[in-house]
Amino acid sequence: MEVDEQAGLYVYSDTELDRAEGAAIESLKAHCQQAIPDPDKWLEEELRRNILLTSVDFMLNWARRSSLWPAICFPACCAFELIAANASRFDLSRFGMEILRASPRQADLMITAGTLTWKMAPQVKRIYDQMAEPKWVIAMGACGISGGIFASSYNVVPGYSRIIPVDVYVPGCPPRPEALIYGIRMLHHKISQRHTIEG
Amino acid sequence: MAIKTEPFVINIGPVHPSTHGVFRMRATLDGEVIVDLEPVFGYLHRGIEKLAEERTYTGVIPLTDRLDYIASMSNNLAYVLAVEKLAGIAVPERAEYLRVIMAELQRIAAYLVAIGAFLNECGAFFTPFLYMFREREKIIDLFEMVSGQRLLYNYMRVGGVSQDIPEEFLPALGEFLKQMPRFIDEYDRLLKQNEILLARAKGIGILTKEKAVNCSVSGPVLRASGVKWDIRKADPYSIYDRFEFEIPTGEVGDCYDRYRVRIEEMRQSLRIIEQAMEQIPSGAVKSEVPHLIRPPVGEAYAHIEAPKGELGFYLVSDNSIAPYRCHIRAPSLMNLTALREMVIGWKIQDAIIIFGSIDITVGEVDR
Amino acid sequence: MILSLSGKEVAAQLEQQFPGSIIASSENNFLVKSESLLDIAEYLKSSPELDLDYLNHITAVDYYDYFEVVYQLTSIKHNHSLVLKTRCYGRDNPLVPSVVSLWQGADFQEREIYDLMGISFDGHPNLKRIFLWEGFQGYPLRKDYL
Predict the structure, then answer these.
(1) Which residues of chain B have pLDDT under 70?
(2) How far apart are CA B80 and CA B68, in angstroms?
């Protein structure tokens, strides 16, 4: 097997790729000037109409919330509290969540653990789009809710709700693993009220 | 029959399962062998240097916590030493001993994460990682007793530390020191002659002495290549010249040597903590400094031996309450300069292991 | 203990080798003209009694009239260190020679200074933005950004 000599050139400086990515980031930044509203309108509607869940809904919701699989999205410091929540002392595996799948197509929960920057934003949006429905997002930490301590910086997105809709907010900097588990229980409660089948 | 091949560019990252964070490598492959590698970062660039210019000197300390978030005590210490050098503030004895104890405990905690993540990438999926997290939780309990926080402590202040230790801290530390050597021996017994670790890490990613010095590499990576350079001995800051400890070095400079250097340094850190615990005096823990510090016009550079390497802060002051310029010499960024040299000629799986053995934290690379 | 070399002594030594290139010197550092930076750096690295082979860091500071680029060098064998400074004027296209050929550790640091301050380095093989994306307008760490 011989290697083509001509093609083994030094391709270290690939500015066309960089420029394409830069254009993608600028367009996303221009597009996302307002926060996406939280997807909880259906909760108020349910309370007003006072609809009871059918037993099929009950089974589906129980199955969905008991084995939420998180997708990997570990930018910064909160990642270490998430890993500590997965580790031996605060065991997330008792909620069925010990699988941290690298592939977003097999995941249904995104726990955003860290500061989001405009350079990273297109990749996070791409991961969110690749997840299959139904999917949920927990914004973890102050940086996930509003930009946190870095909110006035030139490269930081003020909260994940600018680019993806968020279901549960967990405050803290970083939030303790117990706080994260409380947030996950709130999400379980929210899922258990979902009305999947109409009628 | 000769087959014609072409190099192929793939992306490794920025979201990938090894726990080092959002870091991307653009690798040019010929088959499975890496021909060229370009690291791309900036995915966590939060502009800490710019934010530091609009906060007071004490207000920058929480920002420095978030640099290398696995080892916050060391970051705080480096920054506070730089401000004290600039303003000429002296630190009481008890505070110095407390700083040394916290810094060495933090070094052990950071090395536990580094070794755990390295073994994660070697294929021992999560077992040594969970063992090491068990010990790390004990150290985090000690830190929580002192500062109230589990991860980003904000404990050091200009002129000392923020508060004194409670009474139960020193007995708990003594308990920890009694148990820890047994655990380090347990890891060593499991891993030192482990066939898979030897096959995957010995002889991989060799960094020669001259190349390491030329690339401004520091920390365990430099010591594993055979250069005996540790800032605690070469330029002692705080009170490190009162303690006796050794500097382990490697011979070859491959991934296995870096792993060995980290294990040995954990043992030396335990020695330092024992000596500090015996010698600690009583007294004040913070000297009297004004609420808003105004150092005289000038500049100062202070560096320490952080778990990742040489962490330094370069501060320029113009006699106002905020720093005029605060530059952070990040060890992870410097260590990455050598990545391309170490990786060319190996396969992708080796590239992941080499990258894991350098042990970076993206919060520090990107600042 | 790392000995901080006195700027004045080293400046006096260099003045004999490279006349006219030292602008100022003080106890802690000395200032050179940016045109002769590469020659002086090569001399500092290769001379046996100085032997400054380890580059700690390169920084740039924005004083409103000029930019100052600061180099901190250390010798591992002799255990001494030195601070070297140079200045570049003008805010539109400031230019300083690159030291990547001498110390490879300068690679990412010079790219960072180009990215955040806008100072170009002459002779760098790959001078493009490192932390921010291509197409970002402006240089954030300058004092007149935003």
Answers:
(1) 1, 18-19
(2) 15
